[in-house]
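Late entry, written up from scratch paper. The run itself happened at the end of the previous shift, but nothing got recorded in the book at the time, so transcribing now.
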Amino acid sequence: MKIGIFDSGIGGVTVLHEAMKRLPNEEYIFYADLDHVPYGVKTPEEVIGFVDNIVADLVGRGVDAIVIACNTATSVAAEYVRIKYDIPIIGMEPAVKPAVEASNSRVLVMATPITIRENKLQNLLKKVDKDHIVDLLPMPGLVRLAEAGIFEGPEVDEYLTEQMAVINKDDYDQVVLGCTHFTYFKSAISKFFGGKVGLVDGNRGTVKHLAELLGLELFDGDLSHDMIYNVTYVESGRNVTAEAALAKYAGLHARLDQE
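Output as recorded:
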């Protein structure tokens, strides 16, 4: 099957990476909307327009299903495109439920400002946060750092320290990475919390849902390093063919293998 996966930028590569590991025999189109990244600080109307154009593009490329690999785009635009297009469209949401179930103290959800503001996350919290142990923290700067290819070092550490000055990090034992870009920073975030928190993202659950929807069997073994994957990369409607650009994506996959 041909599966389209898209995000405002490179964050969605984290979902693509999980899909390639768990569904290695499928064909993928990964669409990064680099002309409009980041979505998390845009208006809902702008995000709906971007998502509508992307879905139309992917449908035109003959995909059998689409994954919105972006919590912001899901919260704002998923219902709109599901109504408009006759194709399975899977969205993402912060993995609050498994984090709450695993917590013995408090849960911190890191997300973009628009994800925090939208009703989708608020409704999710009403369902799963019965004891009110979840706190929300906007972390838009991590998207900017990820897009710049800065995943560790002084700039990342300074940003984490600055943003988290409003919390007591010792209060938390689970941290939800509520944006696909944040997965690249697992090592840095874990170090900030002294390695004492569980880090939870929605990538595996999203791919599991995709497999169930399409009737595909998830692969659970170890993949060979010389395995050839069928992936086309697209940036705001333009196919990626330049060697340097393709090498950038290869480097992102290599980093995710280390996280």
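The mean pLDDT is 94.
(Scratch paper discarded after transcription.)
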